[in-house]
Amino acid sequence: xxxxxxxxxxxxxxxxxxxxxxxxxxxxxxxxxxxxxxxxxxxxxxxxxxxxxxxxxxxxxxxxxxxxxxxxxxxxxxxxxxxxxxxxxxxxxxxxxxxxxxxxxxxxxxxxxxxxxxxxxxxxxxxxxxxxxxxxxxxxxxxxxxxxxxxxxxxxxxxxxxxxxxx
Length: 167
Prior knowledge:
By secondary structure, the protein is an alpha+beta fold. Helix content is 43%, strand content 27%. Strands 1-2-6-5-4-3 form a six-stranded antiparallel sheet.
């Protein structure tokens, strides 16, 4: 067995052993982090909003991905054979920012403006009714220690929000 195979086995084992048990299941995939909760979509969406506002942050916008997909599916030709216009029962995103954390990020590198606003997505798939997914995009910090530190704080904030919303 090569070293690469051993590393993959250890990573897989670590991933399995670190998944929390209970009503919410955390998932970390390339590019995003999410958690799943068996609950009503509207309740989970409200829990996300509450988790943001309770930290003293202001919600800028709630996007309605589900409505947009339904409205535009025929125009772009994405209606399925079953006539479904979207894979979602419901899908929204909540947009907000932290002034302090964004100041830290752009002070480290002005191009870090790309991370603001922060977005937390919430969706329920037609194929898995009752399972609500809450997550966010992960940021790629690059080589700067200051950027890595700033992005780490933003990542921690977003991770806390999805954890609280999916308790």
